[in-house]
User: Fold these one by one.
Assistant:
Number 1:
Amino acid sequence: MHFAQCMPAISARPGDAGDGVDDAGFAQIPFAIATGDITWQELTGPDARARLIMGPQGGFHILGRLRFEGFAPDVAVRFRVTDLATGTLFNDPTDVLRRRDRQGLVRTPEGWESVSAELVIFTQIRTADQARGHRVRWDVELEEASSGRRARTSREFLVE
């Protein structure tokens, strides 16, 4: 994916420099999310799908990947997965992952990227049927450690 196709909003503080800051204080940075256990797999279009996986402890998760440019490689990452039909939250959005250069992030020609797939754990479901076959919205938020600036993006897809 080219970043020009995915330009989400970031939270900018008053007085922060940046192109394209809107009235609400949001600007644009290159930030993309995908799925895939070994390689980057796009989550675009109406047929986008991510596989629900049962973990060894019996819980369920999907695999996520992120790629960004414009922030230092030291970020907090938060996920939120919501059922589009019911509004049911599938995960705990207060869980925070910290990713840094060579500690979960690697520099690629496309930007800073997850070294491996992130587990997006569905802590709020007990059976696969509660998620499988449902269309969801996956929101991902980054917070740059050095500045507190935030970026967010999302994808909609079918859980299979």
Number 2:
Amino acid sequence: MKCRHQTAPVSFFSFQDVLMCLIGITIVVTMTMLLQVAKATTDMVKSAQSSLDAGIPTALPERALRDRVASLEAAVREAQTRPDVDPLSTRATLRQELRAKAADLESLEKQARELELQLRELLVAHPAAASLRELLELTRIRDDRVAALSTLERKKQITFILDEGEPLHPIVFEISGARIVVSDAGDGASTRIAAGTIAAQCIDALKLFAVLSAQRPSYILMIVTPSGIAMYRTLLDAIHAMPEEMRPRLGFDLIPEGSYVSPVFPSVMTDRPEDAAP
């Protein structure tokens, strides 16, 4: 008898299971993507609808044109609020103000002429009043000269900048051919040495320095004009004649004739000591 070999039948159930799983995964992914696309589309439609409702253009050229128009409108509003700085209009305004001031000046000149005529009539009626007018005119000239002299004297004043790190306090000796003025640089007080011989003035100045330096350590800052060289030399000899432990430290500066530091500077005085150098 012949042997019959029986073989196991072929089954596709495993392949079908895998295939069905892949198909299911594909369907799930597709549905998820469709849902996301639908949501994005819905959001885009809503955004476009809101832009249309607000009047905002969606196209890029239209949006750029709208932004340009908005910037131009803002520039126009700023120009409207900005003050007018046109030089032509400013010049016209100044010209009008000048004409108004010229009219006022002409009116004042007319009043001055009328007052002058009245004054002349009064002088004719009262000849003794002519001296009063002359006195008033001389007083006005004197006041103008005093003001000019005060301005000139202020221009001649010299200011020194002192070192704040200097431990000694400066006592200023302003020396000219007329007098010596001793000034405390701290409080600005000035003392004019009384008139006398050069030697007497030097001794009085050193005595005053001894009184001032007793309050705090100080040194002498000599401010000398060319006319005060002789008095400066006498004062220097008197200082060198002092004992070394009492001899003060010295500073020196030469200023032009007529200039001063203290308002009581002797160079503006007319009196001179008898033995002063010519």
